[in-house]
Amino acid sequence: MTQYRSDSFGRRPMGLGIGHDGVLLMRVAETLYVPWSAIRRVEPDTTEPRRGIDELPLIRLRVDPSRVTASDGMRVPATVTVAPAMLKTHPQVVWSALREFHDSPAARAALGTPAGQRTFDDLCASAPAD
Questions:
Q1: To which H or E segment does residue 39 belong?
Q2: Which residues of the chain have pLDDT under 70?
Q3: Order of strands across the sheet with 39-46?
Q4: Is 101 exposed, middle or buried (0-12, 13-18, 19+ CB in 10 A)?
Q5: Which end of the chain is more exposed for a tag (fewer CB within 10 A), N or C?
Q6: What does the DSSP assignment read for 43-102?
Q7: Closest CA to 18 of 37, 40, 1
Q8: pLDDT (tens digit, 9 = 90+) per residue, 15-42?
Q9: What gap in Å lies between CA 106 and CA 88, rounded to an integer?
Q10: How far is the C-alpha of 70 from the C-alpha of 62, rounded, in Å?
């Protein structure tokens, strides 16, 4: 569930990767690797509406910061925020995927197979991106 963003070094991926071992959150300034075992809860939230901008969906991952790896070496807070509105995939798909894979080791294991990955890719592609 990524898109590409141009910067001074070319185009780089930004977004969210979900795998059988964990979640990869690629941001402008850092990349976070969050193992599934580090995620305590997956919670829905929204941004505050301000100056003509509607509220946007957010997903909060409550994590064990000591188990999360940040590319910049900085300390990770106990809450990691995912902004699904910045992804190509519909926010409900992102929420559902994070909840399902967090709650189900069997579902995570399927991600490690070609058939499981195709199923997940098809789910992401079938949802509207509005």
A1: strand 39-46
A2: 1-13, 127-130
A3: 39-46, 57-63, 79-82
A4: buried
A5: C
A6: EEEEPPPBTTBPP-EEEEEEE-GGG-EETT-PPPPSEEEE-GGGSSS-HHHHHHHHHHHH
A7: 1
A8: 888 889 999 998 878 899 999 999 999 9
A9: 26
A10: 15
Containing 23, the helix (H) or strand (E) segment is strand 22-26
Tokens of 95: 């929420």
Distance between first and last Cα of the chain: 14
Q: Which two tokens stand for residue 45?
A: 């939230």
- Residue (of 76, 77, 93) closest to 85 by Cα position: 93
Per-residue pLDDT, 129: 54
What gap in Å lies between CA 45 and CA 36, rounded to an integer? 20
